[in-house]
Each structure stands twice: as structure tokens, then as C-alpha cells.
Sequence to fold (462 residues):
Amino acid sequence: MTKKRVLIIGAGLAGIAAAVELSRHGYQVRLVESRPRLGGRASSITDPTTGELIDNCQHVNMGCCTGFQKLCRLTGTSQFLTNEKRLHFIGLDGRINVLKNSLLPAPAHLAISFAQLSYLTWQEKRALAVALLRLKRANRPASGAFIDWLKTQKQSCNTIDRFWNVVLVSALSEDLDRIDFYHARKVFLDGFLRGRNAWKVQLLKIPLGEFYDRHLQNWLKEHAATIDLLTGLKEFLVQNEHDRFTVTGAQMRDGSILKADHYLLAVSHDRARPLLPEAASNVEPFSKTGDLESAPITSVHLWFDRPVTQLRHAVLINRLGQWVFNRTAILEQNSPPSGHYYQVVISNSRAIKNKISNSQEELATLILQELEQIWPRTSSAKLLHSRVITEHRAVFSVTPGVEALRPPQQTPIWNLQIAGDWTNTGWPSTMESAVRSGFLAANNIINNDNNNGRKPARLHKE
Ligand SMILES: Cc1cc2nc3c(=O)[nH]c(=O)nc-3n(C[C@H](O)[C@H](O)[C@H](O)COP(=O)(O)OP(=O)(O)OC[C@H]3O[C@@H](n4cnc5c(N)ncnc54)[C@H](O)[C@@H]3O)c2cc1C
Fold:
């Protein structure tokens, strides 16, 4: 039997996950990507000064992110994911608060760690515990904004700043008053309350670029998939027969036309709308894709001549830098080639503009000063090199009402699927959402074929 052909456009994690799922189900997959590298928003670049492959930003997975774990399992790459058993929260006084499991069952497994937080009073901790339990049982409020719910929960400004804000800005990269209730609740429910291992951070021990190029790419090639880099889609060619639309080809930017049985568009939300054929982009909720907003994330990369902390990572409370990652330790480099490498992440970094002028050096200096306050030995370390990377459209914003703007993977055109973290997965803008969307889109194709070519029902136009 001849294999059915699928053309996947976009080799971010959504496109890669779809390619893996379809390849293992016997499809002939062609994955095309406009950039010279795989990975999209979660990728690596070579730093010209150190010559090292560095990630555009530290990417964090969590124990509750089972889709990403499945991708690793399927491709034999689980051994590259660490399972961090502790999180460190460092208050303004420099004290390290360790978050770790107690012997208590979920949802009380972290209660002892929360009870010991040095930067909240007993009264604040009690109110926090009550609010977390209420959140577990809460229904979606009418307004949709998490801040409105929080205001009814007798949380002090301190608790909002030092707990709710710290967790949610890191997880969702948005201001508290721009976060949808559903997504905020999901972070605490899935990440902290549901299971004993859900909160555990997982980090790749290798740069993202190596993860794709040395491992996922090889797995795909071994499963007969083809990958074309520097190959961009211009538009889909669509045929309309009695109001039944079919994609008949993909016109590429170089003028060539690629043909397949199924097409899967796995690009980011800001790129998708102009590429969707009218028969799909005129239909709700696909027509609303353009209403999704984006938020930036900035990472400050610092190389020192000696270690400034042995901690593998730390969450900083009430600082400009929100999360420090000891990349040398995570990458398990005993003799780091270009110095001891740390990365400081600032989610929702549009707020930086209010604090400093636009200079990268100024930002790196401010972050350095913060590290010196926390770990005084930073002052005696020599900064060998620094680099600031801002991804302006890092994630889509989970603003109140966002779920109504996220389309399903099956488009109104029977042989065209979409995937991407922004499509309807129920997850915020994460690797997990991207991978889940890829699996969902791939399974739609498999199911459509298994249904003997029966086409899905048409959606109504606006
Ligand atoms: C700085 C930063 C930090 C982040 N931190 C985390 C984190 O800690 N944890 C986490 O889970 N997530 C994090 N994320 C989010 C995560 O990276 C994304 O959710 C995920 O990578 C999105 O994958 P995707 O495949 O949906 O989209 P993308 O990665 O955007 O992939 C789309 C691909 O399509 C390609 N493309 C676009 N147009 C065309 C065309 N016309 N033809 C061919 N190809 C095209 C693009 O080049 C791109 O490679 C972070 C993102 C950023 C930017």
C-alpha cells in the first residue's frame, strides 16, 4: 500500500511532534521550515564570542507536562531531561527557601515548604493556604480576570507580589491584571496541587539545538521523514468543488509547488492568519487568530571566570531578574569551555522599559548588581562576556477571554490541519501546548483516514 503523504509547514515543537506521530504511524512526512534551523521559538544559536551553542532562553518543562515527556519517550531522548527535586526561592534578604516534597500526600505535599517561606508572615501564609484550597474548588468567575478573583481572597499586597505574581509571571509571562482566571488556576492546579511530582522542573541537559539536530532530526530521518530548511510557504492552493474545499498544493516562496494528501500548518499565531486559505480564515474562531496578543521574554547570559553560586537554579523574589539558571551545572560541564555560564530570565519583559533605557549593557549591569547582592562572591568574579536576548513575540498572552480566540486543529478544509502552542489545547503558550497541538493535529489526520475518507462537518461562516 502506498504511504499517504503529509506536508508539515513549520519545524517548531508543534511541527516536530506532528512529524514524529505521523511517521510512527506509517505516513510519508515532509517537514519544511523557513529558518536555517529547527525549533522555532525554542531553539539555539551560536554565540559569536564564545563559539558555544546557547539556547535563546532557558526552557523549563514541568512534571505535569506529559506531552513533552511523551515526545522524549517516543524519540528515545528522555535521558536528556533532568528531574529537579528542589526549587529555591530567594527573598530580598538573600535567604534561600527550599521547595521540596514532604511525606504528605497531594495536595498537601508542599504545605511544609510553603509554611516555611521566610518572606511571608504567618497570617499571610494562612490566608494563602485558604485561597489555594478555594482555587482548587473555584468555578470560572464572570469577569474572567484572575486579579478580580484574587481581590476577593483577602491576600495582602506582600502575598500578591511575592507569591502569586512570582509564580504566574514566570509561568505565563503576563501582568497579573492581564491573566485569564482559567489559566492562572490551571498553573496552580496542574503544577502544584494535583500530583506530588507535577511541580518538579525538568531541564534539558543539552542545548536545544543539539536536541533537535543530533537526536530528533536523526529519529525522523530513520523513520523516512524528509526535512527541508530555508524553505518557506507562500500560500496554499485550494480547490472548491460544490462548496467542499480541498488543499491541492503548497506554493513555496521559491515558486515550487509541493503536493501531499494532507497539509499541516504549524507556524506561530502571528504568521498563521495570512497563510490560512480564505475558506478557513473567514470562519470563526479561525478569523479571530489575529486578535491574540504577544508578550516578550528577555534572557541575560553571563559568563564568569569562576562559579558565583553552586545552585542549579533559583527563583528571585521582587527582583528584576526572576529566575537564575546555572547553565554550566545543568549542562554538566566540569571544565566549561568559555567560563561559568549563567542565564537570568525576565518574563513579561515589556515592564523593563519602564525601569531602564533601552541599553543591553545597562540591563546586564543591573542584573549583575542583583547577583552581587544575593551572592557577594559575584563581586570578585570576572565577567568575561554578557549577552542579552529579547524575544518580542515569545508567547501569546493569556488575556481574559483568550480561549475563545484559539481555533481547533481541524480547519474547515478537510485536508488542512493547524498546530502551534496557540491553537486550542487548553494549555498556555508552552512547549507542552506546542507538542500537544502537534499530536492532536496528527491524530486528526490519522482518524480522518481511518474514517474511510469521511470528511469532517463544515463549520459555519461568520
Ligand atoms: C524566550 C522564550 C522563553 C520561553 N520559555 C519557555 C519555557 O520555559 N517553557 C515552555 O514550555 N515554553 C517556553 N517558551 C514558549 C515555547 O518556546 C513555545 O510555546 C513553543 O516553542 C512554540 O512552538 P510552536 O511549534 O508552536 O511554534 P514556533 O516555535 O513559533 O514554530 C513555528 C515555526 O514555523 C516556522 N515558520 C513560520 N512561517 C513559516 C513559513 N511561511 N514557512 C515555513 N516555516 C515557517 C518558524 O520559523 C518556526 O520555526 C518560551 C519562548 C520564548 C521565545
In short: DSSP finds 14 helices and 19 strands in the chain.
